[in-house]
Task: inverse folding
């Protein structure tokens, strides 16, 4: 067994082939900075980051269904050899069985959201405010289009820095459970930009989604601090129009913690942790802007709400949750 890096192309192939649980964020598995656990001469892998005394795992085991429990058990042994514990995040409901069999506590942590583009329309009174907001943004002279990343990389980096500066002097860019731009696998992503007179006003990066709800995920989005309202919505509408012409079925909006906590609960779940997630939805905006994120996603009337889970190697644990946020640079 090994916890060492493997070739990133091998990771991409494994995610595409073994995305049995339909994890809409699966492409995060080949983010820069991840480590991979796999068994010699066996298919599949586990994605993780070492943070303090925890191995923070992303998603379930990306492996053939019949091999997933054994791969997880070997990963548990691997962690024990290092005197570390495992906490796994962004599990899908279909991921739960191997964790329950191996003695983990599995709780819902939030949900991801998706729009079925086959049935999507902005017509009708429900979307009047959204249509008006987009129209006002476009009247400011914005040009919106899909663009090669290389053409805009410098301005994207400058915009990222300007956007981050508005969050406070000590805030770091989020990692691990969000996407990236640039790097070896940029060719798998798509970039839509809003520009005015050659200046980048805002952008949205879309990531590939594998599985039965294949399509694209609305991933990183940034805008100039003084940009007009509606820039993000106008970019996303242009992307939807493009995807529709390509007969793309699903547009995903990714995971938001603390939201839609009404999914069926697994045996042995922690009532205290469930209460804590509900408490963070009500009072945790200073920890994570879940309400703001969800409000943007609900503008597009998602047709699928997909519960996502966290699995603790033993009991649900606040220190383990803190290490998840540490892996993300959120604390």
Result:
């Amino acid at each position: 067994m090994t916890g060492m890096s493997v070739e990133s192309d091998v990771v991409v192939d494994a995610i595409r082939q073994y995305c049995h649980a339909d994890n809409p964020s699966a492409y995060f598995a080949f983010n820069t900075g991840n480590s991979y656990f796999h068994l010699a001469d066996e298919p599949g892998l586990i994605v993780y980051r070492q943070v303090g005394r925890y191995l923070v795992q992303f998603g379930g085991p990306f492996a053939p269904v019949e091999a997933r429990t054994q791969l997880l058990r070997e990963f548990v042994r691997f962690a024990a050899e290092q005197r570390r514990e495992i906490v796994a995040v962004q599990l899908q409901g279909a991921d739960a069985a191997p964790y329950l069999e191996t003695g983990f506590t599995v709780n819902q942590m939030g949900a991801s959201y998706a729009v079925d583009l086959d049935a999507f329309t902005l017509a009708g009174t429900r979307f009047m405010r959204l249509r008006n907001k987009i129209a006002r943004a476009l009247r400011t002279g914005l040009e919106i289009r899909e663009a090669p990343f290389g053409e805009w990389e410098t301005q994207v980096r400058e915009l990222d820095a300007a956007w981050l500066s508005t969050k406070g002097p000590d805030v770091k860019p989020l990692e691990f459970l969000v996407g990236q731009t640039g790097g070896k696998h940029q060719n798998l992503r798509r970039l839509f930009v809003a520009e005015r007179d050659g200046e980048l006003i805002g952008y949205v990066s879309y990531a590939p989604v594998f599985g039965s709800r294949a399509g694209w995920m609305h991933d990183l989005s940034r805008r100039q601090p003084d940009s007009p309202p509606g820039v993000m919505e106008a970019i996303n509408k242009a992307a939807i129009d493009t995807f529709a012409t390509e007969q793309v079925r699903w547009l995903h909006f990714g995971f938001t913690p603390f939201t839609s906590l009404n999914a069926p609960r697994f045996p042995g779940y922690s009532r205290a942790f469930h209460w804590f997630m509900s408490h963070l939805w009500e009072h945790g905006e200073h920890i994570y802007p879940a309400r703001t994120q969800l409000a943007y996603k609900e503008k597009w009337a998602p047709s699928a709400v997909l519960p996502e889970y966290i699995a603790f190697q033993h009991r649900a644990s606040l220190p383990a949750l803190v290490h998840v946020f540490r892996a993300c640079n959120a604390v």
